[in-house]
Amino acid sequence: MSKYVAAIDQGTTSTRCILFDHGGNIAALDQKEHQQIYPKPGWVEHDALEIWENTQEVMRGALKNANATSADVAAIGITNQRETALVWDKTTGNPVYNAIVWQDTRTDTLCNELAKDGGQDRFRPMTGLPLATYFSGPKIKWILDNVPGTRERAEKGELLFGNMDTWLIWNLTGQHYTDVTNASRTLLMDLETLDWDEDILNILCIPRAMLPEIHSSSEVYGNAKGVLGGIPVSGDLGDQQAALFGQTCYSPGEAKNTYGTGCFMLLNTGENPVPSKNGLLTTLGYKIGDQPAVYALEGSIAITGALVQWLRDNLGLIEKSSDVETLASTVEDNGGIYFVPAFSGLFAPYWRSDARGAIVGMTRFELVETLA
Fold it and tell me: For residue 63, which phi and psi values (nearest 5 degrees)?
């Protein structure tokens, strides 16, 4: 009998593979960070080939740490950073451009142009989402419009799109699939039909042939090749929906809040999508096999834990993330100073991609104290 289930967690800053035993306990894990690429102000990219290499390495590492082989693994599940968009060659598997990360704001002008006809909520009745740089659809259009030759190749059926779950499933199994939770973050999926919206695809000039098939969050998508060869890949949820399900929010009205790169609250609303009047997102919660889809409302903050990483890597104020609590405890209070880390704009409920980080409340006294 197989001992473990393998979970691949492909996140914004790192990739992990965790082996869980039959009791749901962590038997082993391995984790590796990947490079954050900032070509221009507001642009954030990842090297998808690096992420795939890291994924293979952490799968090997988790097996080694558990003193296990692939024969000890019953199934593979995937959870991933959502909205990070990638386009690649269906024959070679080579990306045509770096993955454009969910935090990236380069599509601000495009979103504003689209909002001139129908406003920021132009697509919200169909998708549950406002026009914002956060989502994958405008990123696809940016790649097709700005990377030479890609639009022609996409129209010929030579290119594929996917969020990072699709990229991993394709590399593991050869299947071009996604699940309803990830599809709901593209600004391209109809919440009622759970299929790509042809009208929106036409408006954005995105060929349907490059989009993955939309499946449930729990079914066998195919068997893996390579490190975990022969093991079925049978679970796929965007990271925040995976947290909603993993924290057993199965009933309408139950909610979870998670703190990672960003901060995300999801509220289970049952089998019917609920429009928000207060700037929240209407999104898919999960869909288990042939069972009805479960919807959620989401409140999103782009930068929370990533601010700690910024203090470490960009300002050099701390050496490791855990130092931030020790540093904060050295002062009595914040002295009326507030830092708004709107590095990727403001998400819910404002959806202002033009917002930027700010330090407010500083007086000459605080400046002297800081310099001292």
Answer: -60, -45
Whole-angstrom distance, CA of residue 178 vs CA of residue 364: 53
Specify the pairing of strand 232-238 against strand 73-80. Answer: parallel
pLDDT given at position 371: 45
Q: How many other CB atoms are found less than 10 A from the CB of residue 69?
A: 10
- Residues 210 and 160: beta-carbon distance below 8 Å: yes
The Cα–Cα gap between 111 and 307 comes to 26
Pairing label, strands 189-190, 195-196: antiparallel
**Which tens digit of pLDDT belongs to each residue from 141-175?**
999 999 999 999 999 999 999 999 999 999 999 99
Pair 285, 238: CB distance under 8 Å: no
H/E stretch holding 306 reads: helix 305-310
| Residues written for the chain | 372
C-alpha angle 187/147/202, rounded to 5°?
35
The helix-helix angle for 48-65 and 164-173 (nearest 10°) equals: 60
* E strand residue ranges, 262-308: 263-270, 281-286, 294-301
Give the Cα-Cα-Cα angle 363, 365, 367 (nearest 5 degrees): 75
Chain-centroid distance, C-alpha 223 = 24
Report residue 331: phi and psi, to 5°. -120, 155
Residue 200's SS3 state is: helix
Report residue 110 as tokens: 């495009």
